[in-house]
Structure to design on (159 residues):
């Protein structure tokens, strides 16, 4: 996974200082209720499609772009499920980041689920209860949030 150019330019100025970044995660279900997952090339975990917003890019557009770039599936964002700040992360090169993740529910518009970039080893649709291993803890957390959102209709925020 290549680091976006805008982050490299920021890092030239701030070094390894903690950087807050806007991120997205997508919950994409097909008509059968299966969930779109990708196996990450950096850690081997199966995860929901996710990514970082480019400067000035609307978050819903970021979400749709990231899903298509990673999986080949075209989506429409239909709801904001939650906004969540991650714990601080440290990378092997010393860089530190926190992500403000916008978790969206998406509707499939078209495309085929395929490995569409170098960020994934595999991509596929999986029924709940039949998820592949190793599964990222992010998936479990996000599915719980999605269930709460479905029950209440209210976007979830960090408290």
């Amino acid at each position: 996974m290549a680091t976006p150019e805008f982050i490299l330019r920021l890092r030239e100025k701030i070094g390894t200082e903690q950087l807050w970044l806007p991120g997205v995660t997508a919950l994409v279900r097909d008509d059968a209720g299966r969930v779109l997952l990708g196996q990450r090339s950096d850690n081997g975990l199966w995860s929901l499609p996710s990514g970082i917003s480019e400067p000035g890019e609307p978050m819903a557009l970021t979400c749709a772009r990231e899903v298509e770039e990673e999986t080949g599936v075209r989506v429409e964002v239909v709801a904001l499920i939650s906004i969540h700040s991650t714990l601080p992360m440290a990378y092997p090169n010393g860089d530190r980041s926190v992500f403000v993740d916008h978790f969206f529910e998406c509707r499939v518009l078209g495309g085929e689920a395929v490995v569409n970039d170098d960020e994934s080893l595999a991509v596929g649709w999986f029924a709940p209860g039949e998820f592949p291993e190793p599964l990222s803890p992010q998936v479990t957390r996000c599915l719980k949030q999605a269930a709460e959102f479905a029950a209440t209709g209210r976007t979830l925020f960090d408290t």
Notes: The beta strands are 18-29, 35-40, 46-47, 50-52, 73-85, 89-90, 96-111, 120-126, 156-157. DSSP finds three helices and nine strands in the chain.
